[in-house]
Queue: 2 jobs
Job 1
Amino acid sequence: MPALIDQIEPLKQAALAQFQAAEDMAALDQARSQFLGAHGQFTALMKQLGALPKEEKPAAGKQINQAKGELEAALAARRSELELAAVLPKDPTDFTLPGRRRGLGCSHPLTQVIEDIVRSFRKLGFVVADGPEIEDDYHCFDALNTPADHPARDTQDTFYLDHPTPRLLLRTHTSSVQIRVMEKQAPPIRIIVPGRVYRRDNADATHNPTFQQIEGLYVDRGVTVGDLKGTVEFVFRELLGADTRIRFRPHYFSYTEPSFEIDFANATVRKMGKAWLEIAGCGMVHPQVFVNVGYDPEQWTGWAFGFGIERIAMLRYGVNDIRLFYENDQRFLRQF
Ligand code: DAH
């Protein structure tokens, strides 16, 4: 048996090797108790210290303590290595690779135009109203004074649902929401209605079977065509530029009397080689419409208008095909 002092270094080396070899916490713990546990080899060595001759004790004691310190440090180091290994992914990760970028979305160009229109009308005290896209023929036509033999009610123009009473259809215009709101609310009324409408058109550069409209309705006492024109002019100038002029041309709609088509002129229109471009329909609410919703036409007056959103968006962004708005092609949408 070698002298105690000569056993320290080899035993320390053996312990260090085992600590390093431990592949998991259980193995490390096992190695720890083998050397440093109550019945461990290294502990046994320390116990023998007391039996040494007095003059050998200090040197051996110092060496043992130093070795023990080293072993405990090695144990702690290996323990944290194993802990780290346990939480890291098994496959090596290359932290220098560039991250994956998540694309930021943006509003659809039609949504942007609708939001701008709504913002302008809000300045004038209008609020947004809403109605169903699946409508009955009463709200879409009859209540708007559109007779049963009117071409708009033709199955060639309108998508009808297979539901005879009431006769259901996909609304062909947002004007139906005028009726819905007036049925529920007493005057005065100041609403705008952005919404999707449907018509049996074949898709081409300027037509799509579904598109968006915005409807406006103003009902109060003593409302005039002047109010209508002033409002329309304010909003279109905000929307299409300060150089925008508008004009009213007499027209016919069954739910307004008198009725007008609105044309506008500005630099964009001139660039297209035209003097005026038709943009909307409007008029003074027909007394029969008021009767249909239970308003007294002797007391109440009003105006209404409606126009297509895509037309405005196409002019504004220089888009030449309406179908682009509905194809959801990222290369197109990303530009807005
Ligand atoms: N509903 C009409 C259309 O679809 C637009 C319209 C014209 C709405 C005149 C109105 C109006 O409120 O007064 O083309």
Job 2
Amino acid sequence: MQSSPQKVNRRLFTQKHLIGIEDLSVDEINIILDLADYYADHLDEREFKPDILRGAIILTLFFEDSTRTRTSFEMAAKRLGADVVNMDVRTSSVNKGESLLDTIQTLHAMLRPDAIILRHNEFGAPKFVSTLVDCPVINAGDSWHEHPTQALLDALTLRRRFKKIDGLTIAICGDVAHSRVATSNMILLTRLGAQVHVVAPEALLPQKFPVPGIRTFGNMKDGLAGCDVVMMLRNQTERMQAGLVKSDSDFFREFGLTYEKLAFAKPGALVMHPGPMNREVEIAGDVADDPARSLILEQVRNGVPTRMAVMDILLKK
Ligand code: NCD
């Protein structure tokens, strides 16, 4: 169901921040997706600039690398008319030992931002920052905890393709244990009525799941059976204890998504990946690049309207 910005009932959205999918009700998820769907419909119109955040200052603060997430937040903010300040942590006083608390207090005093978009390598950093400031904080990924806008853009991509998420069977494969994308998606997809399969080697299976009802599999053949969608994940080596995965080629042989393994899923099953991809490690290049099977570039594209919707809702409340 699509809605225009005027029709969105922002009063039903009770959150001040977007820290995790965990905090969102099904109604709140659908409010974001309905509005994101509207923005996605207009994304290719260059002159479509709602300007509803004119005068607002959005601060992006990324303590970890990013290509898509930071750029799409910036694009989304600009399309809504906001001013964006991208703080480059690599050349900042963080390198002189400044604490997160001092960095936030300094930038908050200087800019008086209307929203802070934060990516951090510490679990819970966005929640901590939300206690220090008087503006909405949007989590752009904290350690292996959550990455809520990624799950929302994935859901938008699925909804636009399949018309509904309820009743889909979706395999999330690979390094589930260290992936914030997997955590946010397991919660969101289950909440919207999908059946989630997790497919991973023993060492990369999470110790516990964030929601009940997830089915786990140790091989791609069984895990992909009956699936409408196969979502692959990058091995998060930056958060992984050395030696957990034997070698890239062993991993690719057992868990890398090739056409051969994709054939275990439903005929015509579609492929997702949040990026960045490691080709020939978790996914074969020809599968990733196949426009008939891969939703990967659509996911990237849907990042902008999803983040427009999130900022619209949190800042216009
Ligand atoms: C993901 C992330 O940073 O969590 N990337 C993204 O935001 N699209 C996944 C990853 O790094 O593997």
